[in-house]
Each structure stands twice: as structure tokens, then as C-alpha cells.
Amino acid sequence: MTIEMSAFRWVPPFAQGYVRDLRVRWALEEAALPYEARLIDPQIQKSQDYREWQPFGQVPAYRDGEVEIFESGAIVLHIAAQSEALAPRDAAGRARVTTWVLAALNSIEPFAQNRIQLDADAGEARTKRVEELLDNRLAALSTWLGDKPYLEGRFTAGDLIMTTVLRELVDCGVLARFATLDAYRRRCEARPAFGRALEAQMQPFRENAPVT
Known about the structure:
The protein has 212 residues and is of the alpha+beta class. The chain is built from nine helices and four strands; from the N terminus they run βαβααββαααααα. The chain starts with a strand and ends in a 5-residue tail after the last helix.
């Protein structure tokens, strides 16, 4: 069975290029695994059929004939288990990759999302606290990365997930304060597989844009 993953048919411009199916597309491109995207809309999201695949109606969901799973981090780790392009074959190396995937999703992303979701009425004290917590996490990550090209010296699924978290901090200006991390983000985004994944996500958005 060809790998099938779900993705949105269209989203508003602010979300384009950032929907979580990008992570799965990128992993599949790095692993050179062919796939098909099942495009969904709000009606399909609500359907019982789709909820049996993705209980929360989100994207991405994934199936390949042997497994049927959801949550982008879990899917990327599943793909990494099949491809040395995303994880070493030794147990210790795979464990490190898993650790970095979970670190990106649990130790960085919640703090990043708190900052991104701040609105103009958040208040000075609230804004300062949110940015302080995020900066502490980013500083620790920057220290770990140092002058290494990637988190574990070579590109892995951990870098893939971490990059998708960090790139959301570009527009708000936070990442500009961490030159090492911004350079790392740019390095990962320069990979050909990322470019192919991004274009694959953007194409349906262009084709299904509402007529104004």
C-alpha cells in the first residue's frame, strides 16, 4: 500500500507553510519514500470516518498498510525507524533521536507557542514572563548546539522537528536574538527535502484558494 497522509485542502495565509503535515512530508522526502496526500476540508474533519483515523479531526494522520497512526511527532519517529537518513541504526543513536524529537515537542514548542499566542492585551508583566521562559529554553538549546551543524552532529528527525518549532519564532523576532539557532534553522531549511515538502504543502493551497 502506498503511504497515505492527511493534509488540509486549504488554510488561511497565516497558517500556510506551517501546518503540521509539513513535518511528515519533510520526513518522507528525506527518507525518499513515495506518498499520497489525502486532502481534507472542514466537512471531512467532522466526519466519523475521519475521526476514526484522527480522533481530534486534526492533520496529519498516516497509514502505510501496516500501521495507522496520528500526531506528527509519532509519525516522524515511525518514518525514522525505517530510514537511516533520519536516524542511526544503532539503539543508542535511535534513542538520542527520540530524545530530541520529544525535547522539541515538550521542552521548546509549548514555550514557543505561548509567545506566539500573546496578544496586544497580554500586559507587560505577562509578556516579560513568557519571553523570559522561552529565552531560557532557547539559550540552553543554543549552548548545546554550539558550533555543531546539527544537534547530534548529523541531520536526524530530531533536527527536523526542532526546525519546524524554531521557524515559527521568526516573524515575532525572537529567533533573531539567537544567531546560532537562526543559522541552524536556515541550514536545515536549505535542505532540498525541506524545499520539496514545503512546495508539496503549498501547491494545494494555491489550487484551492477561495475566489474573491
